[in-house]
Each structure stands twice: as C-alpha cells, then as structure tokens.
Amino acid sequence: MSPAATELQISVQEPNSWSRRVSITVPAERVNRTRSAVTSQIARNVRLPGFRKGHIPQRILEKQFGPSIEQETLDRVIQEAYREAIDQEGLKPITQGMIDNVHYHENAELHFEAEFEVQPEVRLETLTGFTATRPSGEVGEDEVDSVLERLRDERGVWQPLEEGAKPDWADQVLVEITPRAEEGDEEEPETNTYRFVLGEGQAIPEVEQSILTLSPGEEGDFTVRFPEDFADPEQAGKEQHLHLKLVSAQRKEVPDLDDEFARSLGDFEDLTALRARILEDLREEAKRNAESEVRGQLVSQILEANTFDVPGSMVDRYLDLMTGQSEEDRGKLTDEQKEQISQWREALRPQAEEGLKRMMVVERIAEDQGLRASQDEIDARVEDLAQRHGRTPSEVWLQLEKSGQLQALENEITEEKVFEYLKSQNTVS
Hints:
Blueprint: H1 3-6, E1 9-16, E2 19-26, H2 28-45, H3 58-88, E3 98-103, E4 110-117, E5 131-132, H4 141-154, E6 157-160, E7 172-179, E8 192-197, H5 205-211, E9 219-225, E10 239-253, H6 259-264, H7 271-305, H8 312-323, H9 327-331, H10 335-369, H11 375-389, H12 393-403, H13 406-425, E11 427-428
Parallel strand pairs: 5-11
Antiparallel strand pairs: 1-2, 2-4, 3-4, 6-10, 7-8, 7-10, 9-10
Helix pairs in contact: 2-3, 4-7, 8-10, 10-13, 11-12
C-alpha cells in the first residue's frame, strides 16, 4: 500500500446491494501540499504588471487568485482522493460518483462523500429442484394452410369493383366523411378523406355498415352512434349525423393455390414441395418457441428463489438500447415528445429489468460452472453457418466481425450451454 493511500481515512456504506456511499477524509498536510503545487503552477504561468514571470510574491498571488487557487485545490484533492479510495477498497463504479457533503477550512483536513452504483453481486444459491413444462410444439396441416393463405394475401392485387357493385367485408374503400352542420354552427364542417379495409376495425361499425349500402360514386346522409368504449370520451356513446361519399372501392384478387404459385415463391418444384418446406419451417419455429418457453420458466423460478436488484442506471441504459434513443437524443425532443417517451420507457421498465436479470443469471452461471463458449465451439458454429450459406468460414467470420455479431454468436453459444446445464439439473416434462 502506497504512503499516499494510507493518508486517507475511508469508510464505505452500502445503502443497497448495488450502491455504495464512501466517506473520505484527507489530512490537512496533503491538502496544503496540493495547494502549494497549484499556487506554484499559477505563479509560473501568469503575468502581472511590475513583476517578472515566475517571481510574483505569495501574498500577491493569494490576493489576486485566492478563490481560483481554493477551487482548483479542492477539485484536485477530491478527484485524486476519490480514485485512490475506490482502488484501495476494490470498488468498481458503473456510474459517475456524486460528490456531496464537502467540508473544508483553511489549514484543516478535507472531508467529502461520494455515492455511486456498482455492478450488483449475483448470488445463486439455488439452481436445482425446479420443474419446467415444454409445450408440445406439434404442427398440423391447418397451420400450413394459414401460412399459404397469408402468402396468397400478400401477393394479392387490388382491383376496382364492377360498375354498380357494392363493397363487402375485406374490400378496400376510399370514402369522404363530412359531419352535417348543426344549428348554431359558425363554420362549415370539414370534409375528411379516409382509405381503409372494411372489417379491420379502422372505422366505427355503424360507419362501415353505412358504407356497405353505397356503390362507388354514391353518397348519402346517415346517423351513426359511437361505441361506448370509443377512444374519445367526448364522442363515446353519442350520435352524429354524417354525409358519406364512397369515392372508390377495390377487392383483392389473390393468386390460385397451385403449382405455378408455388414456383413463383422460389425454388419449389410444385405445391407439395412448398407445403413440405412450410411444414419444416413451422416445426423448427415451434421447436425454438418451446425451448424459449422452457428457458423462461427456469429463469423465472431461479429469480424467484435467488432475489436481487439491478441498478436504475443499468435499467436506463438497457432502455436506451430497447427504444433506440439515448439521453442526448431525448434532449432534442419537444416537451410533449419527451413526456410520451417517458411514459413509454416506464411501461417497458419491468421488461427491461427482467431482461437484465436474465442476462446476469446466465453470466453468473457461465462464470461459476465454466460454461463460456470456447474458441473451438465458435469456430465450429462459424463453419456450420458457412456450409448452410454456401460460403467459406473466413468470409462468414469477417462478416460477423465487421457487423459486430461475433460477440453475439459467442453469447448465443454460452447461453445454450448454460441452459443445457440447467435442464440437466432440473426436471423438464
């Protein structure tokens, strides 16, 4: 231990598991040494009329630069003592220390306190005795049919209705809506134009029912009632007189479900081959979802049996990643936007806390059980990716490294090993 370190009087308090409050007292002799160094530095660098540079008397310097000398001395002493204290105590702050309760008088010792957050210590005393239930993950022909219908719908083309035809549910309409003027209205009601698909809940039900009675080009007056649970409480449950004009209506024509449609989606010989690929993909997805469900159940039970808190600063940084907005980005927003973002972040906070705890549990288990991904395992995964995509391992490695995904790949392998370990120690039915 260095002589400088032994000069400090240090005490550490733990307000909670992830914060520390350090009280530091610096002897008067050390403060005075720093003050002398600060004064000497100023004397070497300033010029005053009637004095040679570097030869200004002490009393003149004190009179001219006293407050500056005092502030610089305090800043240096506090910064140096703070760094020495956290090193001496083996502390690892994850936030900038907040300095307060500074007490100092000339030729006396200096006392101050610093509070900061540290990486919480995760103690996992219970990792066994849990039970998780794996979903069946079965996939049937109905699920395949649903995917095929979605693919057909995505490739559908909107076509105008035949002349005189009325729209039906699932048709897309372009409609002008004008509130009818009421007695006492000083201004002419404004007409608004809307495009939406009937039956998708984009308009209130009675407006949609009214549109179904019109052909493109027709218009009429209607009385509609807003639902009791309408978003605008001033309109909820009230009647309104509207003038509706159906400008146009379109119906989606989807391709036939045949071999030609299958070939249009890729390298498929026929519809049977397409169905086989969809079934394979759905089964793989169901398998991943089932594994994710098992992992979630195990982590939830582990967190319930081994409780710990995470620092607010860590949650805030994780929220920055989740929302894609840093504190600097939010500073450029309007007050209204800031309020909306703040509400959004608060709604996401429980999810962020859970995500952080999950990562910390995986990290702790990987460390304790020696389950981190090895270089051989990373190389093997890169080779597998290369084979699947018809590329060389070097090409895949360089792409992963350039895109910053190499660390993510290592984390993925580590997580897989951690959960294989957990499943071996617990019951998965």
